[in-house]
Amino acid sequence: MADLIHSLDARYYIDPQVFEVEKAGLLAKTWQFGCHSSDLPDSGSYATFEIAGESLFAVRGKDEQIRVFYNVCQHRAHQLVSGKGKSGVVVCPYHAWTYELTGELRAGPNIKSVEGFDRSKICLTEVRCEEFLGFVFVNLDPHAKPMDEWFPNARQELEEWVPNWASLKPIEWVEIPENCNWKVSVENYSECYHCSLNHPTFANGVVKPETYDIQPQGMCLRHTTECQSLESMTYDIQSGMEHFDEYSSWFLWPMFSFQVYPGNVLNTYHWRAIDANQVVVWRGWYSVDGEESETVRKLAVQDRETTVEEDIHLVESVQKGLHSRGYRPGPLVLDPNCGVNSEHPVMHLQKWMREAIDG
Q1: What is the CATH number of the domain that holds 242?
Q2: Which secondary structure element, helix H or strand E, spans residue 269, and what is its range?
Q3: How far apart are CA 181 and CA 108, in angstroms?
Q4: How confident is the prediction along the chain (359 residues), in pLDDT tens digits per residue?
């Protein structure tokens, strides 16, 4: 038993100091979802969000390029914008220092009276960002490798499963609070060892659990499976696109996942860690141009009332158990043949977690 691979100690999930280490390191040096490009339809459109405790905003420039900046004025640190909006320039509400959409300082009241003041030396602090199939991701590490190196083949595969991605916009965001550590929720998402017992609708109506497998693909966990009898699906899956009769998922370490349901319906998970014991999971559902879709709405309701609700109880019970003085981390079930009843994806996750926290 001593030679087996055991689950992480409880402190990784319940210690507030571990969470602070994650904010300073892991969450600040990985690719994190910021907003959807549809939030930035025109030049001057902006959207704010928070990553690793930092307030950031994305803005579309006059050259149509999306840039992301720390949401802080370079004068005396007032936040520049809030929520979403549109403006030809970025004006600080404190002293009206005004910045171009590229971040350069344009003007400020009475700055010309300051001898030696050089406007060209002042610029908002830019953050590394990439568009990934219409989703804006950021990385606070300026030296981070591109997303395609982190998640090899994920972009190309998703383009095959969701060929109409450029026309998709959010139709619904569902905010799901969970009283657990974000890693507990991510681990639960990343194995189907528990599916047959706990997710009867998903296991009997969507996927064939015996064919479910999850394998690492760089820092991506790639979920593959065959679908159940498609004649019994609760909606019309005939989309006219390839892979219409398949389900697949791409989890991008550490906090985002793309899922494609039969019928090429796109759904996303985004984990937003609040503290060591709380996470909010944002479930996104998408349709062409964000137009109303009965199929998407029904699927979202079915998912929320079954798999999502079932998972809430599971992860919150795990978090309570992690606080128990009687818990001793047991060995992971690692089947050499992998498959649905193996916890090898959890092994990979916990390796990444341990490396990120312990160095």
Answers
A1: 3.90.380.10
A2: strand 265-275
A3: 44
A4: 558 999 999 999 999 999 999 999 999 999 999 999 999 999 999 999 999 999 999 999 999 999 999 999 999 999 999 999 999 999 999 999 999 999 999 999 999 999 999 999 999 999 999 999 999 999 999 999 999 999 999 999 999 999 999 999 999 998 999 999 999 999 999 988 777 777 777 766 676 777 888 999 999 999 988 777 666 666 778 888 999 888 899 999 999 999 999 889 999 999 999 999 999 999 999 999 999 998 899 888 888 888 888 999 999 999 999 999 999 999 999 988 888 889 999 999 999 999 999 97
Q: How many domains does the chain have?
A: 2
User: Containing domain of residue 45, as a range?
Assistant: 32-143
- 95, 115, 143 — which closes off a domain? 143
- d(C-alpha 298, C-alpha 259), whole Å: 16
C-alpha separations of 9 from 12, 255, 327, 330 in Å: 6, 21, 9, 10
Residue entry with tokens 């300082």? 105
Of the residues 143, 170, 197, the one at which a domain ends: 143
Indicate whether 16 belongs to any domain: no
Judge whether 2 lies within some domain. no
